[in-house]
Amino acid sequence: MTKNNVTEEIVKDCIDGNDVAWAILVDMYIGVVYKAIVLVLNKYLDHTDEHDVNDICQNTFLKLFINNCSVLKSYDQNKSKFSTWITVVSRNLAIDYIRKIKEKNTPISDIVDSLHMGGVTGREKISVPEDVISPRQHLVLRMIYDDGLDVEETARFLSVKRQTIRSLHHRAIKKLREHYGLGAGQEKSSCPADTTQS
Amino acid sequence: MDGAKFNSIGCSDRISGNGAAEKKKEAGNCPDTNTFAGYLDNKLAPTERDSVENHLADCPVCRNDFYEIRMLMDQGAKETPEALADSVKNNLQTHDGAPTPGRKIKI
Ligand SMILES: [Zn+2]
Q1: Tally of domains in chain A
Q2: Which of helix, strand or coil describes residue A132?
Q3: A47, A110, B1, B80: which could form a disulfide with A34 (CB 3.0–4.6 Å)?
Q4: Domain check: are A46 and A101 in the same one?
């Protein structure tokens, strides 16, 4: 039996109200939850308080438990591993916690300013015509040009080879040039984020 | 890659729980927790993957969430304080399962 099958059984037993199953679930996933919370708090707060980490850990499992396990029941085992799902859930709770702290400490003028910024990055977004390039090509362009990732990072995030990113980039630029009637140009579609050749 | 350039942290559609993510889905069209996790695990059907990537291309907040979660999944395990698991279990055992919004999170 794989860890996934075991988890499926345990999740089912937890939903049925089995205390032993809950204890096993906590033992199996406390490490994943703890890691997610500590890393998120370390990233966004100057000082990480161990009590806060503990509280958010408690709250993550409580969240799965309360309301007749409605959150736990919402887990779709066909879509993801439980460890990934619970990582997303615990990170959500950690972010929620940080937001509350930040909202409390943010001067109102900053909040007003950020409303006027309009966007998340505060930068004018170029619009990419729909259906000209594939979703993945579009995403790669955003990651490289809007977020400043290099080919290596983009490849790692999308779990593909660097060569795949180069070719997605190349094809996207080519299609966009054609769309805007710019022709093939001087084949100037080498990727600006390409720091590593080959 | 510098997450700090993002003024806002975390997608509100997935955050703040109580099924709000699912209900609010049509508002922002941000992927719900299951879909997001499925994308991270590379387990979505091609059409669903396309629609997540379509969304990520247009939503810098979800993109930032994606980078951050991927990076934290890649990190090695952290040593968990021994007493933590027990205190979580005790907390669950003394709880009757009724909703207690915000019970544990101090604001
Ligand atoms: Zn989004």
Answers
A1: 2
A2: coil
A3: B80
A4: yes
